Structures are given as C-alpha cells and as structure tokens.
Amino acid sequence: PVFAGMKGSAIENFSCVIYNIFLMNCTWQAGRDAPADTQYFLFWQKSRDGEEMECELYIKDENCRNVGCMFQNVSIGIEKAYFLVNGSSKDSLIQFYDEYIDLYKIEKLMPPSNITVNCDEIKNDCIIQWQRPQISHSSKDLCFKYEINIKYK
User: Fold this and answer.
1) Is 64 a domain residue?
2) Whole-angstrom Cα distance, residue 81 to residue 47?
3) Does the record carry Phosphoprotein as a key word (predicted)?
4) Is the pTM of this model over 0.90?
5) Out of 2-6, 118-122, 143-147, which region has the weakest mean confidence (pLDDT)?
6) Is the backbone of residue 50 left (phi > 0), alpha (psi -120 to 50) or beta?
7) Backbone angles phi, psi at 106, to 5 degrees
C-alpha cells in the first residue's frame, strides 16, 4: 500500500493499557520528522462493525500536541479493536498509523481482594484465602496464577 504523507511523520511507540477494570490509556510519540505544527487525532472501533469514535480526552505535551488518550467505561469484546491515529499540518500531509489490538491482552489485572489470613498456633499452620481480581472481560474460566511472599517477623 502507498501511504500518503511525509515519510517519518506518523506517530511512533503506540501502546495502550487497560487498568482499574474499565479505564484505558493509550500513548504515542510524535513522528520524528513531523512538522512542528502537526496535531494528531485518535479514532477507534471496538469491533469490526462497531461505530468509529474519536478520543474524548486527549493527553497533551508541553507544546499542546496530542500524545495520548484516556478512555472511560471500556469493556472488552471478543473481537480485536481497531486504532487509527492520523495527523494534520499546514505544511504537509501526515502519514497515519493503525493497529488491531486484542484488548484482553493489554489488561493490567487488579490485585486479589478480600485477603484473609487465619493462623492456628497449636497446629502451626495458616490458611490464606482471597477472591480473584475483577476483570474487564467476561472469560469466567480463566486460570490465574498467584505468588505469595511470606516474611517471618
């Protein structure tokens, strides 16, 4: 495919993370050869036939250039989500950047909740229990691995 726009003007280092169950953060860096007045805009679709939405809350750098987006109320579907970042400049055409992302792969899990420790001094043992963390997507049969560090004082 032929990409219209000046070479080196598309964004770089695009990445997204989902955290706190329904928040998503995406960040990027301006293209290294992009003109100084370049402004970037992020659009995304949660699924192939979902509606295209523009970022509602941009993260800006010191030059008021959009370098990220914060999303609220994100839910993870079964399809890959589509992200597109295009740019505009008075001086030249800006190349776009696009990527398909499996949202469940970028979710940063919450810690387990309701942790209880019951120790029996006579039997010299402890029972530690917890609830698995809430997750944004609905795969109930996922396998979680936990690591427990016990420090004796």
Assistant:
1) yes
2) 5
3) no
4) no
5) 2-6
6) beta
7) -110, 10
Per-residue b or e along 33-71, where b marks 16 or more CB atoms closer than 10 Å to that residue's CB: ebeeebbbbbbbbbeeeeeeeebeebeeeeeebbbbbeb
The residue whose two tokens read 């530690």 is 128
Query: CATH number, domain at 91?
Result: 2.60.40.10
CB atoms within 10 A of CB 103: 20
Residue 117 forms part of a structural domain: no
Single-letter amino acid code for the residue at 138:
S
pLDDT number for residue 50 = 84
| Torsion, Cα of 133, 135, 138, 142 (10° steps) | -50
Q: pLDDT band at 3, cuts 50/70/90?
A: low
Smallest CA-to-CA distance from 83 within 4, 7, 17, 5 is with 17
End-to-end CA distance of the chain: 63
Q: Which amino acid is at 42?
A: L
More confident residue, 72 or 144: 72
Cβ-contact 128, 117 below 8 angstroms: yes
DSSP code for 4? P
Mean pLDDT of 78-93: 92
